[in-house]
Design goal:
The complex is a heterodimer of chains A (212) and B (731). Chain A is mainly β. Chain A is built from two helices and 22 strands. In chain A, the strands form three sheets. Chain A has a twelve-stranded mixed beta sheet. Chain A has a five-stranded mixed beta sheet with strand order 4-3-5-6-9, with no helix packed on it. A five-stranded mixed beta sheet of chain A has the order 15-14-16-17-20, with no helix packed on it. The radius of gyration of chain A is 17 Å and the shape is globular. At the A-B interface, strand 22 of A face strand 1 of B.
């Protein structure tokens, strides 16, 4: 436990925050996308020191989620329950698992896409992340956006899937449709600036820096 | 712009009036000509405007349970993007959707308040005045309106509560078969509470539909109220309309009536959709949907009481026949509105009997029978006769579509048989008592068979020509009316397009081919046993009939036994061959030639049996009648039938008749009177050339045809409507 706290100390904070963006998708929703291998979940007082900041009755560091290959492990740092059982040691998260942090904040973990190790966290209790997001995407390698049911972000009206992926600290986007990034034609595969507007033939979305 | 739209839309309307006279006549039964014309015009306008494709998308969307959302027509493009501040003080985060009155955005105020911003594209004063009336409404089940603001371009924006949850549309897409009852009641209760609050404040929503209803963390909220005033004006503007609206549009909207009854109507549709996952009136085009709103009858067989009567009343074509208030709708569902205007379960609900339950007769098919118009306890809701007519037309059309040649007498007999079996099954009799009743009835029948059988035979003899003539007359004159065709088309579609007869036949044939020989032999044995029983019964009946007229004694019975035995041998052979041939369609000629051989064998056996039973083989025919030389050699000089004649007779009858069709499990009906009649006619024709003792020759052939059809397995082609899914998966 101490080791984890140490590990997540200030030196890694800056890079962690840099790897977080808001993805606003027209007609679909807003998503907090956090890249990396380890994510801290904390309450409002945690400020920008955690990747996933929840507006709820939580301690500064309530829990950490760590990725090992395509497996995700939930490490409790404060009272935590997994499927209504108290959790006192790191535990594997399976697709569809729900866990509760503190008295009331409940999450559902989802790993819907078989070919991607990225995962998704949904708040099932009446809480909200800061900034407000419909879900949190834990970006490991690729994040699938599109009409298929197993996409990380299901976009029902889209014509085809769009892949968001992190590579060497940069975020890229791949699509079957020609992309326009910040008003300039960008082909079907492009590196994304930190904040940008992305438009395809059948969709439009924006990446936004996170301001706390 | 306006005039162009108008000109465009005129065309479909005129077309409707010219080509579909019958449809219009039906529509006029319940609503005036003018109304239906207006409705068609509205529909046509909508068709010609840009959002027509949207409309169909939405329908598909619901059909496939949200699977097929990806239509180019439904693409969302927004004017403003993340970070824009068209309205001072609010930063746009993303576009939410495009509603009937403009784009809706999710935005955050400078202080961090999350709001939905609706950009009202046409600043019609009337519309904004409508919003003004609603600005200070306060109810948990309404999306709150905060303000109306203008940007630098004098563009009006409505600032309102942001609801993050799913719309009822999305929720319904997740449950294609309807929501669980408790969830459905939660949605409906809250929805009704919100609508009741609006009505209490003199506001009609006018555009209630699942896309306007939101789930805000367990609290249902209604949006878009106060904007839908002058719905037809805004539609004429050719604005992007959030679609699916037709499905919830009351018929009187075509007359320009916008009372709160249209909300009641929409609530009825939504309740139906909550419970079944589908709207009661659906169609390929907006005209079709509107036509159904005007004249169609909702199929309420899918919903149980008390929902059924509530929906039935809410969907009345005549606004005055509907519930007069939302509370009246809630009451039978066990819900009340408390003093705060919130929907609550009614604590006294169990003590109250369910009133006004419409009698829904057990008519299968998509429409409720005309009897559904009769309310049990509420006599004041006796529907207008014209409505009844319209309903009856649709109903009749539906039944015609089921069996194109439903013969009234046969139908009546079937109906009474059904009634009898219901009665029989309903009786709380123990098995012994039932057995006693059955035996008693059998004894009474047997004792009276002397006069009953001739009577029944006479009836049967009269029925056959009646049936034949009727079938011939009807096949020429049964041109379905537009309404019938329309209703049939609907019925067809509601069954989710069953395979065509040809597809079904091919699939089933393939399935037959996969049967093991063990199954086949078991089926064959069963068929043989059945044919034996059938022929015994026929023989017994014919004997009773024959003896009743003749002098009796073994000499009189012998020919019947002879005929039955011959028919049995023929039937068994053909059942065996039919079993072997059932796995493929096969060619005719080889089969006929095989049958020729079978016929010869049967003839030989018949001759031997005839000799053994001492059947007189020489009675009653005149060889001079036979024109040809060759057949005469088959008879002895004194006109007695010889073995070759008997063999030739049966060979000819077997060759000329397609017996394998009678044994085919895929024949169109189990026992076809036509085919029996055809066999008898063929036997008669053959008898003109190769005479054998009559009527035994013809009776044998006829009995054989009946026995084969009764005994061989049969797949009801109507199964393709009910079991086509399983069939497909197997095939």
């Amino acid at each position: 436990m101490i080791a984890v706290a140490k590990h997540c100390s200030s030196e890694s904070e800056r890079s962690a925050r840099q790897a977080s963006r808001m993805l606003w998708i027209d007609g679909v929703g807003g998503f907090l996308v956090v890249a990396g291998n380890e994510w801290l979940i904390g309450g409002p007082s945690a400020g920008s020191s955690v990747e996933i900041n929840v507006h709820g009755d939580l301690s500064r560091r309530a829990a950490a989620i760590r990725r090992q290959g395509s497996d995700y492990v939930l490490q409790p740092l404060a009272p935590t329950w997994m499927s209504d059982q108290p959790l006192d040691r790191p535990s594997l998260l399976r697709d569809g698992a729900t866990f509760q942090l503190g008295n009331a904040v409940r999450f559902r973990f989802g790993q819907t896409h078989r070919l991607s190790s990225s995962a998704r966290l949904d708040l099932v209790s009446r809480h909200r992340t800061q900034p407000r997001a419909d879900a949190v995407i834990l970006l490991a390698d690729t994040c699938v956006l599109g009409p298929s049911k197993d996409a990380h972000i299901v976009c029902p009206r889209w014509e085809s899937d769009v892949i968001l992926f992190a590579s060497g600290g940069d975020w890229h986007l791949r699509s079957d449709e020609a992309l326009i990034v910040d008003g300039k034609a960008a082909g079907q595969r492009t590196k994304l600036p930190e904040a940008c507007r992305i438009e395809g033939e059948s969709f439009a979305m924006s990446l936004e820096r996170i301001k706390i | 712009m306006f005039s162009r739209l108008k000109r465009k839309s005129n065309q479909p309307v005129t077309k409707t009036t010219v080509s579909d006279g019958s449809m219009r006549a039906d529509a006029a039964n319940s609503l005036s000509d003018q109304e239906s014309r207006v409705m068609s015009a509205v529909a046509a306008k909508l068709e010609t405007t840009c959002f027509a494709s949207n409309h169909f998308d939405r329908r598909n969307e619901r059909r496939s349970g949200g699977q097929q959302h990806r239509q180019a027509g439904s693409m969302m493009k927004f004017t403003y993007k993340t970070g824009d501040e068209p309205l001072a003080g609010y930063t746009i985060k993303r576009g939410i959707g495009v509603g009937g009155f403009g784009e809706v955005y999710f935005a955050v105020s400078q202080a961090g308040k999350e709001v939905a911003l609706k950009r009202v594209q046409r600043n019609l004063d009337v519309e904004l005045r409508g919003v003004g009336h609603c600005m200070n409404l306060k109810h948990p089940n309404l999306v709150s309106l905060y303000d109306v603001k203008y940007d630098d371009h004098e563009q009006a924006w409505i600032v309102m509560e942001y609801v993050a949850g799913a719309t009822l549309r999305e929720e319904l897409d997740r449950f294609p078969e309807g929501l669980p009852r408790n969830q459905a009641m939660r949605w409906f209760g809250d929805l009704a509470a919100g609508v009741a609050y609006l009505h209490d404040h003199g506001i009609v929503h006018r555009d209630l539909k699942p896309g306007n209803i939101f789930d805000d963390d367990g609290i249902v909220k209604i949006g878009d109220y106060g904007l839908s005033k002058f719905i037809s004006c805004s539609r004429r503007g050719g604005n992007t309309e959030s679609v699916g609206t037709f499905h919830y549009m009351a018929p009187e909207i075509g007359r320009g009536e916008y009372g709160k009854e249209i909300d009641i109507y929409a609530l009825g549709i939504i309740l139906f959709e909550l419970l079944t996952g589908d709207v009661p009136f659906d169609g390929e085009s907006s005209q079709e949907i509107i036509m159904k709103h005007l004249t169609g009858d909702p199929d309420l067989s899918k919903v149980e009481p008390p929902y059924r009567s509530v929906i039935w009343k809410a969907l009345q074509k005549n606004p005055e026949s509907r519930q007069t208030s939302v509370v009246e709708m809630l009451e039978p569902l066990g819900l009340i509105l408390d003093k705060h205007g919130l929907a609550q379960p009614d604590p006294d609900a169990r003590e109250r009997p369910i009133l006004a339950e419409p009698v829904i007769a057990s008519v299968p098919g998509p429409t409720v029978s005309p009897a559904a118009n009769v309310y049990v306890k509420h006599d004041h809701v006796q529907p207008r006769a014209v409505e009844k007519d319209a309903r009856f037309a649709a109903n009749r059309a539906a039944t015609t579509s089921e069996s194109a040649s439903a013969e009234p007498l046969a139908h009546a007999v079937r109906q009474s048989a059904q009634n009898f079996s219901t009665w029989w099954n309903d009786q709380a009799l123990n098995p012994v008592a039932r057995l006693v009743v059955v035996i008693g009835a059998a004894v009474i029948l047997l004792m009276n068979s002397a006069w009953l059988l001739p009577l029944l035979s006479l009836l049967a003899i009269l029925y056959i020509p009646y049936y034949v003539i009727r079938a011939m007359v009807l096949s020429n004159h049964q041109q379905p009316s537009y309404a019938a065709a329309h209703a049939a088309a609907v019925a067809q579609r509601e069954r989710r397009l069953p395979p065509t007869a040809q597809q079904w036949r091919l699939a089933t044939r393939r399935q037959l081919a996969t049967k093991s020989w063990r199954t086949r032999s078991a089926e064959l044995t069963a068929s043989w046993a059945t044919s034996f029983v059938v022929l015994s019964v026929l023989c017994w009946a014919a004997t009773r009939f024959g003896i009743a007229e003749g002098e009796g004694g073994p000499r009189a019975i012998a020919p019947f036994a002879w005929g039955a035995a011959t028919a049995l041998i023929g039937a068994w052979t053909m059942l065996l061959l039919g079993k072997a041939w059932e796995s493929e369609e096969g060619e005719q000629l080889p089969r006929r030639i095989v049958q020729l051989g079978v016929g010869a064998a049967v003839g030989a056996v018949a001759f031997a049996l005839g000799k053994g039973l001492m059947i007189p083989m020489d009675e009653g025919f005149d060889l001079r009648r036979v024109g040809w030389q060759m057949p005469r050699h088959m008879y002895s000089a004194d006109g007695e039938v010889l073995l070759p004649a008997m063999m030739a007779y049966f060979s000819a009858v077997f060759f000329l008749t397609r017996w394998w069709r009678s044994a085919d499990p895929l024949r169109s009906r189990r026992l076809s009177v036509w085919s029996v009649a055809a066999v008898v006619v063929i036997a008669w024709v053959v008898n003109q050339i190769i005479p054998v003792p009559q009527p035994w020759g013809m009776l044998t052939a006829g009995a054989m045809a009946i026995a084969i059809q009764m005994a061989s397995a049969w797949r009801n082609p109507a199964d393709r409507f009910t079991h086509h899914e399983t069939l497909e998966s197997r095939a």
